[in-house]
Structure formats: C-alpha cells, structure tokens
Write a structure and sequence with these properties.
Helicase, Ruva Protein, domain 3, 522 residues, Rossmann fold, 45% helix
Length: 522
C-alpha cells in the first residue's frame, strides 16, 4: 500500500507539474517506464462536434508519423468511443477496435500494444491517453489497474491544458487586435496633425527631436490647442509605440481618489477598497503616461509623482512594497507652472523634473494660416460622422470671416463651430453654402483696437482677459522704449522675469526683439 501511495504521489507531481502538455508527456514517459512496458505516450482530445481526435502531445522512443494531428472518426468509431465502459481498456491487438486501429494506422505503428486511459472531467469525456509499446500482448490487468489510479490527475491535467491553450489563444488574438488598434490610432493621430508643415512646423521639429528618447516632455499651451494630439505623436514615434499609452486628466479626478487612480491601492486600504487595484502607472509599464492638466495635481500626488520620476518606482495606497515601473511621462498644462511655483501651489523640484523638454504649442490666433486646412479637415470629418453624403461648399467670404476671429477656444472651438453649422445645415437646406453666423463679435484685433479701444465682451471671457493683459504689456513696453529686460525694462516694471514676459508676449502675439524693431533683440 505504501508503495502504491508513493507511486501515485510521484506520478501526480509529474502529471500536474506543468501546463505545457508536451512537458507532461515527457515527464510521465520517463517515470512510468519504470513500472510497465512503455515506449511512448500520446494524448488526444476528442472533438465531439467534428468527430475527430486531435493530437495534443506525444512522447515516444520509437519513430511515429506525426504529420497528421487531426484524426477523423467514423460513425462506428464514434459509437465505439461512446459505448466503451471503464476508464482503462487494454488493446493488445489494435485491429480489435476501429478507434485505436485508425489512430495507429495514422501514426504508422500497428505492431504494438496499448493501454488507453479515457479521461473525463465533470462528467464530460475529454479524450484519451495511449500508453504503448512495441509488440503484441504486452499489457496485463495489473498494468491497467496501475494506470487506472491516475485517471483523476490526468483528467485534471488535460482540462487545465485545454483551458490554458484557450487563454493563450485569446491572449494572442487580443495582442493582434491591440497592435491593429495601435496602428490605427497612430495613423489617425498622424492624419489629424493639421498644420504640421505650417503653424506647427516648429512643434513637429521638437517632436522629432525628443520622440526617440526617454526624456520627460512638458506640453504648454492654451486649452484647445491640441496637446493630446502632440502627445500621441510623441508616443507613436518613440521606441515605446508598441507599449500602452495611458491618458489621464488630472483635473477631472477628485483629490481623494487621485492617489488611488494614479498609483493603485491594496485591498482594505480604505473604505470601499474591496480588492487590489492597479494604478495608471502600473498599466503604463513600458509605455507612456500622458498627464493632462498636471498643474491641477494636489500636493500629496505631486510628492508621489516626484518619487516616480526620481526612483522609477511606486507604492500602492495602503501597500508597503516598492514596485518598479518603466514609464515615460508626458505632462501638459494650460497654466503657468512658474507662477504656481512662486505661489507655492506647485512643487519646484517637480517642475524641474517635468520641464526637461518643454514644447510650446501656439494658439490658433498665432497660426491663422492653418485655419483653411483645419476648416477643410473638420468639414470632411464631421460630414462623415453626421452621414452627410455630399460635404457642403463654403459661402463667399467665409474664410476671411473666420480668419478675422481670434479663436479664444482655439482648434477645439473651430471644430465645435463647424459641427454646429453642419447640424443646422443638415436640418435646413443641405444645398445652401455653409455659413457661420453665430461667432461672437467676429472682428480682428486691429479692428477692435480702433476707436475707443473698449471691448464689448461678456465679463470674465478669455478674450477680455487676454486683451487687457496685451494692452498693459504694450503700455509697459512703450514706457520702457521697447526694452524687455534689464534696469528700466518692461519685465522690471511689471515685476516678472524677462523669460516669463517673452512667453506671455508670444502667447498674446506681441512682437519683440528683431520682429518688433528690425534690429537688435531686446
């Protein structure tokens, strides 16, 4: 009895020691040949729907014909398979039954004896395992009883193998689907960078410089200029393009959840944490994470983010284990982080870490030459989305009208206005030229500055704020005789750094240096 228990234990270790069924067959052949005549083991899955035996694995000391892994079963063979009683059957002469005869004809070995173990799992017959050796009449009832002890381990092993193969196949399909979707996203992201050779030429040159590297990138620009599209371009032009691109709007996550969302949490870390959760940084491993509106991060999350950038590791909320992550960070903001640092609302050390390679994306009013291209792109895109078969033509003077507007909402505002006009046209007269009658106060900056200089804009609008700032800076420049930096310069009069002033002047379209005077820079 002790010897039988030891045999069962050792055999089970080899049967259930791997999910790779080929490895199981090899291990079992090496072990079981010490207990019965054995030249090989073949494992077959029974495909009842198609009435075929599918060869899963074989381990053999004698040559076999393994060119055909699917063996059709006749009606007689199918019936014999169903009528077979018991878990182990001795076939000392293959010709005695149509199923083993067909198998061994296919494998090219008829001068043999075999023990066939019929494996079942939860009442369903999965297939059979053949233990075979050369020669006739080699197996006895004692050998059959020994193999019968292994019915349950072999049944579990085959069931696990089939499920494992299904999971591997699904994973492969998902990988292929993800690769296809990434390629599509790459193609789409490349297509929508309108102005790459125009107003965004300098931006795209910066993208080409930094994309092949692992450096952090900080995208600066007003709301609606297309920071997410530039982040896409950087990721898909980088060596990480086959890894994940995880996008997070830091301003859209409540302060109490930001740590959990970014870095994950352990089960029981707080009320409602019913299971472990991976954070966005773990999901972005070997890829890129895009932190939009990074200036809105609360203080505690800033500390954790700084640690990720410094040490390349995170710690889940409620956890004690340090988890290494390989992530490239692309951050974006429409805020002046320098100003936030001075006001102690953003960590200076974090700003230095993020500001490795800043890219300033100019607003639409500074690249109005791109407006006709954006207009064509959005008309075609929105026409497809709205099922407009024939895209409309533009009314006379439309381009000039749009070029005269300052676009405080930038590209996003232009896209919304195009969609709104197409919706109205679709429900009115689709044959009429496309017009944009709902733009607020469509007049150029120069036209607004004529007369008394006052603006009739809604209180608190972005344009009103920019216009007042523009006029104030221009008055300081006039007072400083065009001088930006140094004693008596506009920066000193305004109480800000010269670089900050130049950044704001670029943003507001105020010329300075050579562009303003045609001579030496300031």
């Amino acid at each position: 009895m002790k010897a039988l228990i030891n045999f069962f234990h050792e055999a089970t270790l080899r049967i259930c020691g791997s999910l790779e069924i080929e490895e199981v067959a090899d291990n079992c052949l090496t072990y079981l040949q010490n207990y019965l005549p054995l030249d090989g083991i073949s494992m077959h899955y029974y495909d009842q729907q198609n009435r075929m035996l599918l060869l899963l694995a074989t381990a053999s000391k004698i040559p076999l014909n393994l060119g055909q892994t699917a063996i059709p079963i006749s009606e007689a063979g199918h019936q014999s398979f169903k009528d077979t009683k018991g878990s182990v059957v001795i076939y000392n002469n293959p010709e005695e039954d149509p199923v083993p005869l067909k198998i061994w004809e296919t494998l090219g070995c008829l001068n043999k004896s075999s023990l066939v173990l019929f494996v079942t799992f939860k009442g369903t017959r999965l297939g059979q395992i053949d233990f075979f050796c050369q020669g006739r009449n080699r197996y006895t009832a004692e050998h059959a009883n020994l193999i019968r002890q292994l019915h349950n381990p072999f049944s579990i092993a085959m069931a696990n193998c089939l499920q494992y193969r299904e999971i591997v196949n699904i994973k492969r399909l998902l990988t292929n689907d993800n690769r296809y979707l990434r390629d599509e996203l790459h193609r789409v992201s490349s297509d929508v960078i309108v102005g790459a050779r125009g107003g965004l030429k300098a931006v795209m040159e910066a993208v080409d410089q930094v994309a092949p590297l692992t450096s952090q990138v900080l995208l600066l620009g007003e709301t609606g200029v297309g920071k997410e599209i530039i982040a896409n371009a950087i990721h898909y032009a980088s060596p990480r393009k086959d890894g994940p691109l995880i996008k997070i709007n830091c301003g859209a996550i409540p302060d109490g959840l930001i740590d959990s969302e970014l870095f994950g949490h352990e089960k029981g870390a707080f009320t409602g944490a019913l299971s472990q959760k991976l954070g966005h940084f773990e999901r972005a491993h070997q890829g890129t994470i895009f932190l939009d509106e990074v200036g809105d991060l609360p203080a505690q999350a800033q500390i954790r983010l700084l640690r990720v950038l410094q040490d390349k590791e995170i710690e889940r909320v409620g956890g004690t284990t340090h988890i290494k992550v390989d992530v490239r960070v692309i951050a974006a903001t429409n805020k002046n982080l320098e100003e936030l640092v001075r006001k102690h609302r953003f960590r200076e050390d974090l700003w230095f870490r993020l500001n490795v390679f800043p890219i300033l994306i100019p607003p639409l009013r500074e690249r109005k030459s791109d407006i006709p291209y954006f207009l064509h792109h959005f008309i075609m895109k929105k026409s497809r989305e709205l099922n407009i078969v024939k895209p409309p033509i533009l009314a006379s003077g439309t381009i000039e009208k749009l070029m005269a507007y300052d676009w405080p909402g930038n590209v996003r505002e232009l896209e919304n206005i195009v969609e709104r006009a197409l919706i109205r046209m679709r429900t009115a007269n689709p044959e009429k030229p496309l017009v944009f009658d709902d733009l607020p106060n469509i007049r150029s900056v120069s036209a607004r500055s004529e007369g008394n200089g006052s603006l009739r804009e809604p209180e608190g609008s972005q344009y009103l704020l920019d216009n007042r700032m523009r006029r104030h800076i221009e008055s300081m420049l006039k007072k400083a005789n065009g001088k930006v930096q140094g004693p008596g310069g506009a920066a000193a009069l305004l109480g800000i750094k010269p670089n900050t002033l130049r950044h704001r002047m670029r943003t507001l379209g105020i010329p300075f240096g050579r562009s303003a005077r045609g001579g030496r820079g300031t």
